[in-house]
Design a protein that fits this description.
mainly alpha
Length: 284
């Protein structure tokens, strides 16, 4: 065999070897982290918000109240833009892009421990299917957080910082607001982004205060969600979150959801803008 053919043969053999070396377990990561199940709640929460706004608008006789057809179209747009499968795919792409195969394996190894599985179970038990249940849970979380010793609160503060909870929530709120506003503007030509740009500038200026407030809310939520964990168990969870691979995992998740919310909100805004145009034509 000539040297050239030998090199070609080695290259051919190396292809499956390289592929095996980079084998990914992204779907397994989605399931074991609890994201696969938890992402289903986002669509539900958004529809709960729409129903609450609709109920208030109807009760107060506001012009923002929608008819049955319009309400159905908006909810369908939410399902399309924020459905669980859409968000799962966004997470898959972000994990592959932002986590190395080795980091993915490290995260999976931690999630496979008894404590990792216990924490995933606690997170999956969170119920956001009812507005009343959410309100009761928030009140209970606030009361509990206010009664905890400083050492426990310090651990929860570290967890919120390591998981970038405040910044992540602020990013999603900003992306949702800007995306929806831009979508409405795009659906009502001529496209004028003056208001969108001004809104973005104002919200970005408020980001530090918003993130700080949402960080403290996350501490309260964590206090309730992880209330059954012993301090040493919570300390081990914080150590995972603060590790390089734990931080990369949280950063990838936040990036995925931030991008998905930006795209989804624009789609929702386009639907709202279309409905607004239709209503204007019906009154002209």
């Amino acid at each position: 065999m000539t040297r050239r053919l030998f090199c070609l043969f080695l290259a051919w053999v190396a292809i499956p070897v390289a592929a095996l070396a980079q084998e990914r377990h992204t779907d397994q990561l989605l399931v074991m982290s609890g994201l696969h199940q938890q992402l289903e709640q986002i669509e539900t929460m958004m529809k709960l918000g729409i129903d609450e706004a609709q109920s208030k608008a109807v009760a107060q006789g506001l012009k923002t109240a929608m008819g049955a057809t319009e309400l159905s179209r908006v909810k369908a747009a939410v399902s399309t833009a924020f459905g669980a499968d859409v968000l799962r795919q966004a997470c898959r792409e972000a994990f592959i892009e932002r986590l190395s195969a080795a980091e993915e394996e490290q995260v999976l190894a931690w999630l496979s421990t008894g404590l990792g599985q216990q924490i995933t179970t606690l997170e999956e038990r969170e119920d956001y299917t009812s507005g009343d249940e959410v309100a009761k849970r928030d009140a209970a979380a606030k009361r509990l957080a206010g009664s905890l010793p400083a050492s426990r609160v310090a651990l929860l503060q570290r967890l919120a910082t390591a998981s970038l909870a405040g910044e992540a929530a602020a990013t999603m709120i900003i992306n949702t607001t800007i995306g929806t506003t831009y979508g409405v503007a795009a659906a009502t030509p001529p496209l004028d982004t003056t208001m969108v740009d001004a809104l973005r500038k104002r919200m970005e200026a408020q980001r530090p205060q918003m993130a700080a407030y949402l960080h403290q809310l996350a501490v309260q939520q964590y206090a309730y969600t992880y209330r059954s964990l012993l301090n040493d168990e919570l300390e081990r969870y914080v150590a995972f979150a603060e590790s390089p691979y734990g931080r990369r995992y949280h950063e990838a998740t936040i990036h995925a959801l931030g991008q998905a919310f930006a795209r989804g909100s624009m789609q929702l805004g386009l639907e709202l803008g279309t409905l607004e145009k239709r209503e204007e034509r019906s009154h002209s």
